[in-house]
Amino acid sequence: MKVAMVCPYSLSVPGGVQGQVLGIARGLRSRGHAVTVLAPADDRPVGRSDAADGVWVVGRSVSLRSNGSSAPLALSPLAVTRTGRWLADGRFDVVHLHEPLAPAINYAAIIGSSAPLVGTFHRAGDSGWYQMMRPVARWANRRLRARVAVSEEARDTALRAMGGTYEVLFNGVEIERFASATPTPTGRPTVLFLGRHEPRKGLDVLLEAFARVTGPATLWVAGDGPSTEALRRSHPAADRVVWLGRLDDAQVASRLAGAHILCAPSLRGESFGMVLVEAMAARTAVVASDIPGYRAASAGRAVLVAPGDVGALANALDEAIADALGGTRTASSESLDAGVARAAEISMDRLVDAYLEIYERVTVPSATPGGR
Asked: Which residue from 68, 140, 51, 69 is spatially nearest to 103, judged by alpha carbons?
């Protein structure tokens, strides 16, 4: 099968959607399917960037505020034109759009593609863009042969804005990448934060909570963002707090495997906590905020505390650190095994299998666009 995957977000910026697009593409290729990824990128030349990863760069991105974060989107008419032309020239069996109503390159496929369209909705929480563009969004949504949401919350967000019917799947984790990673050495219990440094990710809450942690421990802070400079001034690098900056995929896996605890203190806006499941695949304990996307991802295998509650987070971290000091790498072998089992439930292999079933269904000649 010949599949085009369109990602509206720049592949140069780490993000959950981008990771899923590339992971699904790798999984499909491992099964012998031909996959082309069309997306913006800011560190690769426009055009075909690498025959191995099948990426075609449609243009550069600009940053737009969206859902409490910054979305790196390609908005230029030239990027939209390239996307439409390459989709037409490729003669694909299926065009798979991620965050299908995000501006702007997905609209080239929605308007002009003759191949069946599959859309995956990742966003959770109210969307000003969906509200502003509701009439157009409803029309565009009806062009999709199949609609998938990565979680119940993502399904509810799309349903409120546009109606329609949705299959709820999940975000997939590439188990082997984390299970086989070489752990980064650490001499004492270590807590890892992975994410963009912006208010909704709750890094300020974690830094305040960690300052209250009484046990000997280190906090690794990975990533960057608009809040980095201010947070580093208030919590400068020290023996207990290490600022790592942006990590590549291999470094992320190594740090997850080396850390004793992954802490995800987000306040809102997480449709599915992919980083929680990646930590479980690496046999790392998880302490996170009790928000819908993290509950869905962890399925009872993580310690969850009220979002924004500094005291509760500090207590949870103290307990997890005490477990690490007690002679095991994390809380217990049994809880780690449960986390690994959870990761296996939503592996990338299973997700790719589910998408292949959808692709086969929508390419049947009698298939029609999904219900209103």
From this structure: 140
Distance from chain centroid for Cα 108: 24
Distance CA 141, CA 162 (A): 7
Q: Which domains does the chain have, with CATH numbers?
A: 2-172+348-362 (3.40.50.2000), 175-345 (3.40.50.2000)
Contact 244, 255 (CB under 8 A): yes
pTM equals: 0.84
Which contacts of 335-338 are long-range, i.e. CB under 8 A and separated by 24 or more positions? 335/285, 335/301, 336/283, 336/285, 338/301
Q: What is the dihedral of CA 353, 272, 250, 322, to 10 degrees?
A: -130
pLDDT in tens, the chain (372 residues): 999 999 999 999 888 899 999 999 999 999 999 999 999 999 889 988 766 679 999 999 998 876 556 788 999 999 999 999 999 998 999 999 999 988 889 999 999 899 999 999 998 876 666 666 667 778 888 899 999 999 998 999 898 888 899 999 999 999 999 999 999 999 899 999 999 999 999 999 999 999 999 888 999 999 999 999 999 999 998 889 999 999 999 999 999 999 999 999 999 988 889 999 999 999 999 999 999 999 999 999 999 999 999 999 999 999 999 988 875 444 467 888 999 999 999 999 999 999 999 999 999 876 555 554
Least Cα distance to 305 among 265, 345, 340 occurs for 265
Q: What is the token pair recorded at 257?
A: 């495997």
Task: Determine which helix (DSSP H) or strand (DSSP E) holds 104, and give its type and residue range.
Answer: none
| DSSP structure string for 329-353 | SSS-HHHHHHHHHHHHHTBHHHHHH
| Cα distances (angstroms) measured from residue 145 to each of 118, 238, 336, 365 | 6, 53, 40, 12
